[in-house]
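In the previous chapter we treated chains in isolation. Here, by contrast, the input contains two separate entities that must be folded as one system, with a combined length of 644 residues.
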Amino acid sequence: MRSFTYTIQEAIGIHARPAGLLVKEAKSYQSTVTITKEGRSVNAVKLMALMGLGVKCGDTVTVTVEGPDEDTAAPALEAFFKATL
Amino acid sequence: MITIQGKGVSNGVGMGPLYFYQRAKATITRCTVDDTEAEWSRFKAAQTAAVEQLGELAEKARARAGDEAALLFETHQLMAEDLDYEETVEAFIRQDRLNAEAAVADTSTQFAEMFAAMDDTYMQARAADVKDVSRRILGILTGTAEGGIASEVPVLLAADDLAPSETVQLDKAKILGFITAGGSGSSHTAILARTMGIPAIVGVGDALKPEHEGRFVIADGGTGAVYIDPDDETRARMEQKREEQLRLQRLLETLKGQENVTKDGKSIRIYCNIGSPEDVPAVLTNDGGGIGLFRSEFLYLNSTNYPTEDEQFEAYKKVLEAMGGREVIIRTCDIGADKQIGYFALPKEDNPAMGMRALRISLTRPEFFRTQLRALYRASAFGHLGIMFPMVTSVWEVREAKKMCESVKAELKKEGIPYSDGVQIGIMIETPAAAVMSDRLACEVDFFSCGTNDLTQYTLACDRQNNDLGRFYDPHHPAVLRLLKMVADNAHKAGIWMGICGELGADLELTETFLAIGVDELSVAPGSVLPLRNAVRMTDTRESAARILAELAADHHRI
C-alpha cells in the first residue's frame, strides 16, 4: 500500500469536473484508490461518493493506493492532483 | 364518421391525421420482479442510451457555444455512468427486486437528498442534476421520446393536456391544431394555439380513443367539433368554412398599417404577447405595435440548468433588435404555480398558485434575480425595453425589486457596460391586492399591465386549470371588470399608462368595455391583432362608453 497527503488548491474544491477527471484517472489503474477526508473514505472511482465528500479548497485529503500497480500509480496520481486539484 | 364535441378555444379549421402526444409517464409504475437479471439488462440498456444522448448534446453545445456550455451535459454523462449510481440501482433491483423504473427513481431520490443535505451551495445544486439524469433514464425506460412528434407530415395533436415545459419543446411546424382531453380556455395549450393561429379544442374527455390515431380528422376550433373520418358533406362544408376564414384573414390583411383608432378618434395601442424570440416574425407579420408581454420563462423551461447571464442577454437582445426600436416589455421569470422546473428545486406545495412563484422567487433568490436583471439591462442598449414584474401584492416588493435594478445599473456603470437610461419599469396587476393598492403602486412604476387570467382566478377563487368550474370561472364577471376600471383610474390619476396582457384583451365582446374604461394598451396573441384592430375601428365610444360605465356601476352582469 502506498499513500500521500495533498492539500486542495482548486478554488471550488473537488466539484463535478475535477471529480470526473479523478474518476477517469483512478479507473485507469488496477489498484484501488481511496480518498480520505476527516476519517471518511471513498473509492475514487465513484463520482457521487467523491462529490459527497464535499472536499473544499484548503482541505487536506489522504490518498491511498493499493494493488498490483501501486508503485507506478501513486506517483502518477500525486502528479495528477498537483496538476488538476 | 364520428363527431366529438369539445370546447373550441382557438379559431380555425384544421385537417389532417390525428396523432397522440407521447410523454414520459408522470407517475412511474412500481412493482417487484422475479427476473431481476432482465430488469438489470433493461437498466443497462437505458443507461447506455442516456450516456449516448448526453454525449451528443454535449457535442452540440460545444459546437454552438464552446467547452463551458458542454460541461453541464458532460457532468450529467458522468453521473449517468457513475459506478456509485449504478451500484445503487443494482442493489434496488437485485436485493429489493424492484423494477428498473422504481430502482432509478429511488436512486435519484437518495442521491438528490445527499447533495441537498450538503453545506455547500454548489453541491446542493447538483441535486437537480441527479434528478435530471434520472428523468432522462426513466424516459428511455418507459419508451417515450421527450416531446417529439414522430410523424413525417403535420398532424392534429391530441393529448390529455400539455405542460408549458412540453409545449416549448414541440416542433411547431408539425402541428395543425390541438385537441386535449382536459384543459380550459386559459390553459397553456389554448394560449399557444392562439399564438400560432391554429385551432384548439379542449375538454373532449375520453372521447378520443387510441384506435383513432392516424385517421383523417377535422377540428373546428370555432365550434369545438372534431370529426373523425368525416363524410363528404362534412368535409365540403368544413373546407368552405376554412375558405371563408381565409377570406376574412385577407380582409384583415387590408388593415395592416392602419391605426387602432375608434370612429370618434380614440386610439389604443395593440401589442403582442410572445413566449420566445421565434414568435417575433408573427408579431411583425400581424403588424403588432410592440411587445406588451415577453414571457421570459422559455429560457428557463428550455434549459436543464439556470440559463446564464450571457444566454439570457442574447435572447433579449435578439428580440429587441428584431423589433427595431418598437417597445418590448419583458416580464421577469414567472416560474412556480403551474410552471414547475426541476432544477429550481422548489419544495412541493399543496397550493402552488398561492405559493412560491414569480417575483416571490426572484426576491427570495437575489442572485438568480440579479442575473436576469443584468442580462435585461445589458440588452436595453439594443432597443426600447420595458421590464415588468409578475405577481406583485405589496408596495415593498416593488421597492425591493427597483432597488435591485438600481444596484444592477450601478454595477454595469462601474464595469463600463452600456445600458439604456430609458428603461420603463412596470408591474403586472394580477392579484386583487395589487388592484386594490393600485393607487399606491402607481406612484412606484411607469406602467401597469393587467394579467386577467390570474386576476380572474384569484378574484373569483376559481382555479384556472380546473375546467369543471365552467360557468363559475367567468372572466366577464363584474368584479373583474370593476377591478380593471379601478386600476385604469388609479393609473391615470398618477399619470401612468395601463394595459391588459391577459387573454381577455383579445375578447372582442369586451373591446368596447376596455375603450370605455380607458385602457391604453391591449397586448394579445399576434393572430388577434388585426381582428382587434377591426373591432376598435368599428367602435364609437360616444355611443357606448356612458352606457357601459353605468352598467358597470350598477350590478348588471354583461355577458
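The longest helix of chain B spans residues 36-65. The mean pLDDT of chain B is 89. Compare these points with the single-chain example from earlier in the chapter.
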